[in-house]
Amino acid sequence: MKRLALISLGLALGLTAPISQAQEYVIKFSHVVAATAPKGRAADLFAAKVNEKLKGKVRVEVYPNSQLYNDDKVMEAMRLSSSKTTGILAAPSLSKFVKLSSNLQAFDIPFLFDNMDDVHKLVDSPLVEKMTKPMESKGVKALTFWDNGMKVFSVKGDKPLRAVPDDFKGKKFRIQSSDVHEAMIRAMGGTPQKLPFKEVYTALGQGVVDGQENTWSNIYSKKFHEVQDYISVSNHGYLGYLLVVSSDFWNGLPEDIRNELTAILKEVTVEGRKFAAEADHEDRVAVEKAGFAKVVELTSAERKQWKAANASLEKQFASEIGEDLLKDIHKLLGN
Ligand code: SIN
User: Is it true that domain 23-96+113-147+240-285 has CATH number 1.10.510.10?
Assistant: First the structure.
């Protein structure tokens, strides 16, 4: 009787959920790019589908532009969170996972992939399970891979980046928190500087760094081209994402909800590839049309020079990535 009276009072004050009301799970999806970028669009599509199909059971809130966390902080927050009802979901770029799985550094090896078809061969193969496995013991569940695209190099100065190492010498380049990228910039003759994504525009504008490497959609949506003089179409490496969530939260979800979320993610991954391919083309056109940075193609001789400069990197990181894994990747890609 006393318990009933307390519950009624709680209900009247809005403090207690009605006993019959099912648990609503909340997923906070934190990312660092613009909502218009491929990852932003895929995150919004995921939220829209979940919020419609699982209404009352799961609610997804999306936080773009590093509003909630930057990529390093989100991993930390995810690993520290023990909530079974509110989960943090993130999709950091593959270059930011070294602390969770050194295997994933394979994605950072310059010139490993000739194009997005090569990337998809790897991402759609069973090899990626091997690459994400080490995360499980660290409390992080890998869900799916999302695309962005191939990277190009931009720079401020009186000439574009063409000759290696001459055009890189004396220049500082912003990189993500990847040791492979650090070695790559050094191999090309430049000076690397690791910086969070949200600091890149200001760092370029204020001359803290002279250049950076990124995809067309990140360059355009964050206006990097407005503070750079040249963009060299190098397509030297891939930028993609791994969707991750805290294992405690994920494993604690009812099985039917987990299955629904997995199915929705599968659909969104397919759509996300289309968003990325569209942006890759459209944002390049938009950058060229804007007329701030001049876009230059590398000649095949120049590209050969860039490749040669980076040829020793794979060996340098082979023991961290795994010799056998690298062999398997080459076999898969036929290179
Ligand atoms: C992202 O696409 O999530 C950011 C990549 C970067 O840090 O350059």
Answer: no
